[in-house]
Amino acid sequence: MASVKSEKTSGKKGSRFLHEVKEWGKAILYAVVFGTIIRLFVFETMLVPTGSMIPTINPPARLFVEKITYSYREPDYGDIVVFWTPYVDIESQKYLRGFDKFMDFFSPAEFKGHVKYVKRLVGKPGDTIELRKAPDYTAARPVYQLYVNGEVPPQLEDRRYVKEGIFNDTRFYFGLAHPDDASVRFSPYYRLFQAYKGLIEYTEYYDSVLAPLGMEKYIKTDPETGSVLVTVPDGFRFMMGDNSTESFDSRYFGFVPERAIVGSPMLTIWPLEDFGPLKK
């Protein structure tokens, strides 16, 4: 009798153990499913390893990004926007942590292996933008304001930029994509083109996306002022960093496809001393 009771007790314990395992398995499965849904449609995080947005975002920062706002409205002038790089940034991949690499499994197929940038939106489709000397421009401080369709948007009045990239060389994008082409050998940016050959995989993006648009239609020089005028094509945005001297932005890599926009950063979660809502 004792052995029969022992067997029954043992059987009940085994049954309870299997039940517990199943319940934990369900809980883990639900967590993975709901976590994936939230990651795909609601929130995600990103690492900001560089100083392109100082003083708004101080590196190394990890941001909490919400993906809802820009699903029902377009980002406006001055909005801080997180977006996928439209090309592979080999150098920035080195800064990614294990968590970032794991989360890359959930990235849109088009942007697998890409990284996210965070910049400020300064140009919408159809806008013509240019850099003009700012009121506080001096030889010691050569800074510019960004004009959109001939005016400075109120959201950008306090922003100052450095006149580099496409605003200095109308063939900059071509040179970055084809650094060994004979026609760019005498560009003031020739050494920069050479330096970036191993840092980003830009040629495919330029040749397959930008070049077919007809860059000569969108990038022109004003014959009266000599200023470079950049018109933003339909389906694209123009993004620039707050820390203009340290920001690799649309002045250098071109227009950002609308489909590359991820969302809006809402919270700094690391480092702890900067924890809190992002000051925009």
From TrEMBL:
InterPro entries referenced in this protein's UniProt entry, alphabetically: LexA/Signal_pep-like_sf, Pept_S26A_signal_pept_1, Pept_S26A_signal_pept_1_Lys-AS, Peptidase_S26
Keyword Transmembrane: yes
Active site residues of this protein: 52, 119
GO biological process: signal peptide processing
GO cellular component, one term: membrane
Residue intervals passing through the bilayer: 27-48
Enzyme Commission code: 3.4.21.89
GO molecular function, one term: signal peptidase activity
Keyword Protease on entry: yes
Recorded family membership: Belongs to the peptidase S26 family.
UniProt name for this protein: Signal peptidase I
